[in-house]
């Protein structure tokens, strides 16, 4: 079916600008942590947009928001989506662009008076970032059956506030069972969140899959003592051990191909300038496009920590925060994304995603693909996060054309 469909670019960017005002920060970014008042305001705005289009708008028991454009026949839907929650120092584009683009795809079909053969839908998934509740991608993880609603509701934030209680408080514990809408395919548009597209010739990205992710929380317990009267040889210092672990994890990236490592959280107690720490809690974020080297990196970290604990006379314990295998996407859908780019005369390259996305969870259920647009300066999770209007419209046109073709195949 050959139909000349186009996104209304001005409307796309206007919608995103409206959403960006909710939780706007003085630095030009957005702060909409999951299930906060700002997230509720963003959700209310999104539900209003969906209902204004006449979409069948539903909310499930984990707070995922689903807008459905009914097709000509019953059966699994072609789903688009992403998230509108942000990290604490978030930008305007991460996740939000994918949701707004999905809404705009369905608006374009409404404008053209077109009804797809299959249902088409857009979903805003709950707590993708994992910045407030663990794990990240929680809403899509529950949707895909990887975690029960009950277990998700028991998750608490750093202040001990429960996820289930917050869903109720903001009025977004819906009635639908997660996964209530069967998926024929899932296509997500997203900013790259890295420098590759901009630095290596521009164009867009046809994502071939997502790296495996291993998030660990380490608790290191030593012995608090006076920093001026305790000789170095007599100390049991978890702060020093944490630094050594961080260095070791980063050295692994030089010996294990394509390995990444980061320690984004380090909390020291009691946190006094003249006291050797008693306890350090730190995180490690390990990633690799392949599962075997990722497992190798984790095993190496654990072995190093065991040796370090024995040598330095401290205790080190581990807690899993998130663990997701590497996820390849569907070749047939990747090819459809490339075909759509070709129809618009847009350059596109195949690439792996360094970040986790809701698409990673949806790939458990159905053929999945992603479209990346460039992130200027490679910045994301940063108020300076930026993508151009031209790139946003180009990516949304690829999303529209691909989703429409798959929905009518």
Shape: globular
Helix content: 25-40%
CATH architecture of the largest domain: 3-Layer(aba) Sandwich
Total count of helical runs of at least 4 residues: 12
CATH superfamily of the largest domain: Zn peptidases
Find the count of extended strands (DSSP E, 2+ residues).
Answer: 16
Structural class: alpha+beta
Average pLDDT? 97
- What characterizes the major β-sheet? 9 strands, mixed
Q: Which regions have little confidence, pLDDT < 50, spanning 5+ residues? A: none
Task: Give the CATH topology of the largest domain.
Answer: Aminopeptidase
Order of helices and strands: HHEEEHEHHHEHEEEHEEEEHEEHEHEH
Identify the CATH class of the largest domain. Alpha Beta
Organism: Bosea sp. NBC_00436
Protein name: M20 family metallo-hydrolase
Pfam families: M20_dimer, Peptidase_M20
Binding site for Zn(2+) 1: 83, 94, 190
Could you describe the 3D structure shown?
With 409 residues, the protein is α+β, with helices and mostly antiparallel strands. It is built from twelve helices and 16 strands. The strands form three sheets. Strands 1, 2, 3, 4, 5, 6, 14, 15 and 16 form a nine-stranded mixed beta sheet that branches. Strands 7, 9, 10, 12 and 13 form a five-stranded antiparallel beta sheet that branches. Helix 10 (331-343) packs across helix 12 (389-407). The longest helix is centred in the C-terminal third of the chain and has 22 residues, at 291-312. The radius of gyration is 23 Å and the shape is globular. It starts with 8 loop residues before the first helix and ends with a helix. The model has no long low-confidence stretch (mean pLDDT 97). Pfam families: M20_dimer (PF07687), Peptidase_M20 (PF01546). Keywords: Hydrolase, Metal-binding, Zinc.
